[in-house]
Amino acid sequence: MIEQFTVGTRSSNLAISQTNYVIKKLKEKNPSADFIIKKIKTKGDILLNKDLNKILDKGFFVSEIQNELEKRTIDFAIHSLKDLPSEGNSNLSSFTVTKREDPMDVLVLKKGLADKKIHDIKLIGTSSIRRKEQIQKIYNGVKVKSIRGNIETRLKKLDDGELEGIILAAAGLKRLRLEHRISKYFKSDEIIPAAGQGALAVEFRKEDKKTFSILKKIQDESTQICINEERKFLKTVGGGCSSPDATLCTLNGDKIEIQGKVFDTKEKKYIFGKMTKEIGNHVDIGVKLAKTLMSKISNKIPIQIILTNEGDISGFDELSKRDIVTHHFPLIKISPLDFTVNNIDSYDYIIFTSKNGIKNFFNKVKISSGIKFICIGNKTNQTLNEYGYESAYISKRNYSNIMAYELKDNKLLNGKKTLLIQGKISKDDFKINLQEFCKVDRVNVYETNLESKVNKELLKLIETKETYTVFTSPSAFDSFIQFYNPKDTKIISIGKTTTEYVNSKGFDCMLTSKMQSYEGISESLIKYFYQK
């Protein structure tokens, strides 16, 4: 019997080439299996005008593919390992497959300049701050221009005369059979590559044992050993796929060596180091090297986090246990709406999407004991408990399409009469998705009002300090841009909806929380700035 698998991948020629290579290896081990490729565009493929140095969202090249996995429209995904965030999705698993390709960076010169010495080149293109910082330390006279797009696009820009040279990964050129364009291979004492560069990874749902069993057959153990330590290094220093930090791990006989560079943003220089251990006694060598290098960095200015949500901020308590200073400037105000619910006892379930919904609902409505509750998020459930009720189900996914799919999949609401409690500003996506499998009515019980005047203390803070501002809703961002310039701060988003709204206004999010809650943002920030 033929087993069929749907494989998710980015849509570039390189991504498709890598995917076909992995499928070829899988078919060698599983000749009866059939694989269908599904091309998926990510933010990294769409937002080509965005400077990667300013986008620190660690899922920039994979989030949309991961969403497809969670929606079960694909069975597994194939990624360039270096695009995969070091902190994984709790519902997904990943590991490297096949032997790692050449991990080093290379220089490609414009046609006709093949014999020109690098010291004579004045303009080089790269989208990577890691490559930029390292190349400028080697060749002081070189200017670097940011360049985005797939490999073919970058080569065309090069040959059209926009640049004299570009820096690319050797692996990508080799996989596209463009190795003949390489003019120079950089050695590790010149440019250390990104963690995981040249390696391929598969990602799949944790509970999918069948998919796991076929993917595991093409795992390369030596590659996985090195990648594990490189990713530990990156995670410990708090870097992502667009950070300047660099590391390379290699096996030599019975020895493992890791070298790395951490960028000191205050002194504008790299701190370099390396370690060697015997294989078998090497676990966490990446962590040890990272901590050694981090200890040599100049004293940091305390991290300043601005919280813009209305009400309770106890969910951010973990931040205060680090050298993080939080400032609370509420930018929205929640006000109750006048509403009515007819025949409340006729409903089987009530869904609450926020704690504000619960508070404003129970301040006006009394219900019988026969109705069951569903809460979106732990904070919402905690608030329900305070009113003396228990949830029949708690969803931790705060994206409407995924939540609705989750509820449909567990068949809890199928055919049931459901009341959806929301705020006036919320979109109707959730209700529309729920209507596919249950009868649902929506009631708005509160509205969100924006701040009406500038807060001089907040204005002074963002103008005089390096700050990070947390936005927990599109309305909070709307309130902010009335009086303040988002370019003066780094933007942190509670989830996908808020991030998409910020992007629609022409700005970039530094980080998007995987879990849409205050605790989720705190966890994401701590993982970003520190080792977990």
What do these coordinates show?
With 532 residues, the chain is of the alpha/beta class. The chain has five domains: 1-99 and 195-219, D-Maltodextrin-Binding Protein, domain 2 (3-Layer(aba) Sandwich); 105-185, D-Maltodextrin-Binding Protein, domain 2 (3-Layer(aba) Sandwich); 221-297, Double Stranded RNA Binding Domain (2-Layer Sandwich); 303-331 and 451-529, Rossmann fold (3-Layer(aba) Sandwich), CATH 3.40.50.10090; 334-449, Rossmann fold (3-Layer(aba) Sandwich). 30% of the residues lie in helices and 26% in strands. The protein has 17 helices and 24 strands. The strands form five sheets. It has a six-stranded mixed beta sheet with strand order 16-21-20-17-18-19, sandwiched between helices. Strands 2-1-3-10-4 form a five-stranded mixed beta sheet, sandwiched between helices. Helix 8 runs parallel beside helix 9 and helix 10 (355-362) runs parallel beside helix 11. The longest helix has 17 residues, at 13-29. It is globular and about 80 Å long. 42% of the residues are buried.
* Tally of individual helices: 17
CATH class categorisation of the largest domain: Alpha Beta
Strand order of the largest sheet: 16-21-20-17-18-19
CATH architecture of the largest domain: 3-Layer(aba) Sandwich
How much of the sequence lies in strands comes to 25-35%
